[in-house]
Amino acid sequence: MKAVCLLSGGMDSTTLAYYAKSKGYEILALHANYGQRTEKKEQTCARKIAALLGGLDFVEIDLRYFRQFGASSLTDTTIPVDEFDPARTLVPNTYVPFRNANLLAIATSFAEARDADAIFIGVQALDYSGYPDCRPAFIDAFRQLIELGTKETTHIELFAPFIHMTKTDILKLGKELGVPYEHTWSCYQNEERACGTCGSCHFRSEAFLALGITDPTPYEVE
Length: 222
Hints:
- The protein is α/β, with parallel strands linked by helices.
- It has one domain: HUPs (Rossmann fold), CATH 3.40.50.620.
- The chain is 38% helix and 11% strand.
- The chain contains seven helices and five strands.
- The protein has a five-stranded parallel sheet with strand order 3-2-1-4-5, with helices on both faces.
- Strand 2, helix 2 and strand 3 form a beta-alpha-beta unit.
- It is globular.
């Protein structure tokens, strides 16, 4: 069995790839460079993880048109990255408009071209930042798109196994799978020392704290 795994180099996608491998899939890793602030760091982590997984292939795609679109603090450096705020009711400015649809469309092309059996994406809908393209309804809708937009002889399953899990649940699973978190990066803002204040840093550090595990990430703000 072959599976395309969207591999950002972050905590969730790395755990996802190790999970897919544990289920017997050979990994076709797909990494996107979309002009994000931490592009180089994420790329380095994704390449390292792909090498450790020893999959069939590692493909990098250029989606830097997201930088031309803007409207996200990840792709427009003139917009300050929102800090985590538990009282926030609106989607934070780290949301990249419709990014997951772009990623899944490309993953579907990759999967169909390589006769892969599945696509894995590491979205979650519990302790996340409220991104609309991480919701279960979005994943269900994209499953229908895959069915409608591919050949009749193509059968690709879309898996989002973490969608009803917390970050702590994901970390617990990852430790059982032996995920090397020292080679992952979660910060939205920095590439040397994680900011410790963005939403991604918050959820990561809280998960490690909840399980009593030392986070290998160096932080500016503990």
